[in-house]
Amino acid sequence: MNQPDDMMLFEVDDFLAFADQVAEEPEPPAQELDCGGIKNKKQVFRSSSSSTKNTLAKVGFITKSEIELLDDGYRWRKYGKKKVKSSPNPRNYYRCSSIGCNVKKRVERHQDDSSFVITTYEGVHNHHAPQPAAVQHQARHLPNSDG
DNA sequence: CGAATTTGACCGGCGC
DNA sequence: GCGCCGGTCAAATTCG
């Protein structure tokens, strides 16, 4: 345990609160977010901050899902895939498709429990969610109101 | 046709 | 200076 001061620790519990916000869908991830077992592992992530010159906010989250592309309300475009040593699984790189928004998202599979997905957000959206997950879900069901 | 996706190649920072 | 690892772009392909 020797994390530098310029590093913040985010507990999975924090994610629960975060998920609660995006849990606008009829099927809240809370059901799949069986963090109960994760917490036992004391899974925590670090976020680079403090550094005034670095305004980039990095936040790591762990999610229990079979899919990596979790619709958190933003449009993401995959721009790269790389296999890292840290994990035998490949890592995916996503970027906010929005204009003027250079937020990046990293997605990686767990090495031991492939049932879990590690999502790391880098930066902060300078615009509101263009397409709320909840709306998208409905838009798929509801026909064109235009007629 | 076009945007998003797919996948390889290229480049930069660190260690030796 | 080179090799390794990680991060990003870019061409071809795919899907709507």
Task: Please supply descriptive tags for the structure shown above.
147 residues, alpha+beta, 5-stranded antiparallel β-sheet, two-stranded antiparallel ribbon, 3 helices, 31% strand, disordered N terminus, disordered C terminus, DNA-binding
Please explain how this structure is put together:
The model is unreliable at 1-9, 19-54 and 132-147 (pLDDT under 50). The chain is globular, with a radius of gyration of 16 Å. The strands form 2 sheets. Strands 3-7-6-5-4 form a 5-stranded antiparallel sheet, with no helix packed on it. Strands 1-2 form a two-stranded antiparallel sheet. A hairpin with a 6-residue loop joins β6 and β7 (116-122). It has helices spanning 12-22, 35-40, 133-141; strands at residues 7-11, 44-48, 58-64, 76-83, 90-96, 104-109, 116-122. The protein is of the alpha+beta class and 147 residues long. The chain contains 3 helices and 7 strands. The N and C termini lie far apart (61 Å). It binds a DNA duplex (16 and 16 nucleotides) through residues 77-82, 84-85, 91, 93, 95, 97.
Q: How many helical elements?
A: 3
Largest sheet, spatial ordering of strands: 3-7-6-5-4
Q: Give the beta-strand count.
A: 7
Percent strand: 25-35%
Estimated radius of gyration: 16 Å
The end-to-end distance, rounded to whole angstroms, is 61 Å
Query: What is the element string, with H for helices and E for strands?
Result: EHHEEEEEEH
Task: Indicate the overall shape.
Answer: globular
Query: Would you tell me the structural class of the helices and strands?
Result: alpha+beta
Summed over residues and divided by their number, the pLDDT gives a mean of 60
**Low-confidence runs:** 1-9, 19-54, 132-147
Biggest sheet, open or closed, and with what strands and sense?
5 strands, antiparallel
What portion of residues is helical? 10-25%
Organism: Zingiber officinale
Domain WRKY: 65-130
GO cellular component, one term: nucleus
Region (Disordered): 124-147
